[in-house]
Amino acid sequence: MKLLLKIWRQKNANTQGKLVEYVVDHVSPDMSFLEMLDVLNENLVDKNEEPIAFDHDCREGICGMCSLYINGRAHGPQTGVTTCQLHMRSFKDGDTIYIEPWKANGFPVIRDLVVDRSAFDRIIQAGGYVSVNTGAAQDANCIPVSKQDADKAFSAATCIGCGACVATCKNASAMLFVSAKVSQLALLPQGKIEAKDRVLNMVKQMDTEGFGNCTNTGACEIECPKGISLENIARMNREYLVATLSSEK
Amino acid sequence: MTKIDSKIPQGTIDKKWSDYKSHVKLVNPANKRAIDIIVVGSGLAGASAAASLAEMGYSVKVFCFQDSPRRAHSIAAQGGINAAKNYKNDGDSVFRLFYDTIKGGDYRAREANVHRLAEVSANIIDQCVAQGVPFARDYGGLLDNRSFGGTQVQRTFYAAGQTGQQLLLGAYSALSKEIAKGNIQMYNRHEMMDVVVINGKARGIIARNLVNGKIERFSGHAVLLCTGGYGNVFFLSTNAMGSNASAAWKAYKRGAFFGNPCYTQIHPTCIPVSGDHQSKLTLMSESLRNDGRIWVPKKKEDAIAIQQGKKTGNDIPEEDRDYYLERRYPAFGNLVPRDVASRAAKERCDAGFGVNATGQAVFLDFAYNLKYKYGKTEATKKGIHSPTEQQLYDLGKEVVKEKYGNLFDMYMQITGENPYEVPMKIYPAVHYTMGGLWVDYNLMTTVPGLYALGEANFSDHGANRLGASALMQGLADGYFVIPYTIGDYLADEIRTGKIPTHTPEFDEAEKIVKERIHFFVNNKGSKSVDHFHKRLGKVMWDKCGMARNEKGLKEAIEEIKQIRQEFWKEVKVPGSDTEFNPELDKATRVADFLELAELMCTDALHRNESCGGHFREEYQTEEGEAKRDDEHFAYVAAWEFKGNEIQPQLHQEQLVFENIKLVQRSYK
């Protein structure tokens, strides 16, 4: 396949970026999208041009590092996959592909397609944990957890923190990300002790980081590579309301 | 010659650790705050160690090269984590886990360390559950288990096919909790470039800020390397793209011995290579061997027809299939350890029975268990008395989907084939390195104050790691071992005071780092970093991979030297050193792989025996099994750096087996 790529190039956070055109040839349908970019980068290095910077690491859809906005969709045209799991058989010869970074106030661009997502870390630091120190735990089977709750908590916990939900949302809201962690811990007995403070603090941090509000468009759920459900946002809203009304602080 | 002392405590095996804990030196809480600890790497070992040490009161700094500590490659572990809980009432115990691990490692691990690992395994599960890790549960609300290779009990705890992710996020949450309290300073997108050693003790690191290229100095009373393994020497492996050996290699060059570098694990169930563009290989969890049966055609003509695309796996009738693991190893069947399964696959493919275009693949087939194990049970549950084949398939598919759904989806994404309908094709790939920095019982390297945890050390898996034991070891080291053992060293550091970074040793280390980086960005060579990395990978896979021999290893050493020379002449790194420059990051890592690869071959060449993942073709039994030489090689090979382009010096730590009898490993 031969493809025309229009890729966002930006030297650093303080300079203006623009779309630059590249042609890449001999693309095999078995290549992953990132392998196609590897080929382009090899070519650029050969021509003494600077390769395109993009984030990636595990290349099996679990680390959450890859983050491309492809033809106007987070992680490209397929649903339920990250960019690194997207394969070129999803495209055809002669296609033009637009490749842009995540665009959101909370995610400033570092270079080209690489953005700074440390806001997510700070939200987790605001309360996305159970305050149990090493060595203080009792036997793991002391508190049974219904399979239904455990499964729901697991589904929420599969969030990889890639930021596709934010990139997709027209308000650049981080509600899906935050609610996934709030839900996971609210559903488990271990997380209940700190549930009220957790939701209040995490939501506060989310607002501080400059993420927008949720207007229930549901785009985040559709683009989430792990299928995190909107139900989590509903649960977080409920948790938030209860916490606001009943918190003793 | 430096004498190596493993510092194994006295006493019987089951008392060593508890006695040690009762007598180890302590640091009082007031003194801990004034002690700085540097942790490099934020995977299971790094995050759990950092969180635990910070909780105890130490001042901790953590470094990771990714954009967040949550991305460390522990996250990609799929199948599970072992623990001797015996929740299944199937006879598991600390001793059995200890025994299985020593045997699985082909009797090349240190008894005392492995026993300790088995002892703390149960605490890990408790800790993780308390953190809110959502392990799989049964309908009664209690934790579920499954089997893994090399064991006959069910002791593996799991969270679908994403156990590593859930455990890492648990450790990351503990890390985040301590960052929020100000007990940990986190440095994302920072790579360690060198260890600083002052008066024989590790006193800090030089790190590079990957965003702006700044070289920075950090001091500490102890440095913990939790930087994972070196599988990416092979270019193609299941490791993440950024996984690298540089921290361990820099430690080696500063005096830390490297243990058993030739022990690499080739995982039997990975998705086969599809072409030259391939950047990495994807693992299909070992847990699939619970329900997937591995086979190739019995008849060569069938294999050839499949290779040519004229037949598929489904066209081969049952009687013409060779379930070679079940045939060769009836007691363990498809659940033999990884090294055995990998070699058996290679043996069949080398004999011409491979099942894809390149002849480098075998089938992993779920059809039988899907229909007759799960389908039948579900039919019985639903009261369907004589179900049709289609009903069995439909019912079984639902169960298989729940157990392995994400793995099947992943397979489908990559290959474009549906494993619910056609058998998966798999082939072995580089996955894990048992070798690593040599450490004593305290997890300290031969450089005082410098520790290595998790995959970065050599310690617990001998010559072959059992499935679901990497997560166990990483968390054991971080949560339950280092918090005790580090006190033994730091108790003598309470009067040291803050360590300055304006010393000649820091100057020297920084100068070396800067010179190297300066070289890369100014060397106007003609070939990319990947060009050299791919060539290195091919030499290593062909000559220091699943099977090795004297001639090949000698050739490999020469070829590596040649690639290295050419690299330093011809490597091309575009861009500058004061900006975000991933090509430069790669160059610094590949430069180290090019040296480490030679040490791996040197070690493989000296070890004139086969054991676990190290298979020397000259040393095998008549049935083609690994043949150990306990008389001459029951030791850990610890290599000491003697200078660039100079033969390293070998030190031997004799392994003493007081509790387990050395026998030939048998899974028949």
Written overview of the protein:
The complex is a heterodimer of chains A (about 250) and B (about 675). Chain A has about 250 residues and is of the alpha+beta class. Chain A has 2 domains: about 5-110, Roll (Ubiquitin-like (UB roll)); about 115-245, Alpha-helical ferredoxin (Fumarate Reductase Iron-sulfur Protein, Chain B, domain 2). Chain A has 9 helices and 7 strands; from the N terminus they run ββαβββββαααααααα. Chain A has a 5-stranded mixed sheet. In chain A, strands 6-7 form a two-stranded antiparallel sheet. In chain A, α7 packs across α9. The termini of chain A are far apart. By secondary structure, chain B is of the alpha+beta class. Among the domains of chain B are: about 290-430, no CATH class; about 505-635, Up-down Bundle (Methane Monooxygenase Hydroxylase, Chain G, domain 1). Helices cover about 40% and strands about 15% of the residues of chain B. Chain B has 18 helices and 19 strands. Chain B has helices spanning about 15-25, 30, 45-55, 95-105, 110-130, 165-180, 245-255, 300-305, 325-330, 340-350, 365-380, 390-415, 470-490, 505-520, 530-545, 550-570, 580-605, 630-635; strands spanning about 35-40, 60-65, 80, 155, 185, 190-200, 200-210, 215-220, 220-225, 260, 265-270, 295, 320, 360-365, 425-435, 435, 450, 635-640, 650-655. In chain B, α4 (about 95-105) packs across α5 and α15 packs antiparallel against α16 (about 550-570). Chain B is globular. The interface between A and B is large, with 78 and 82 residues.
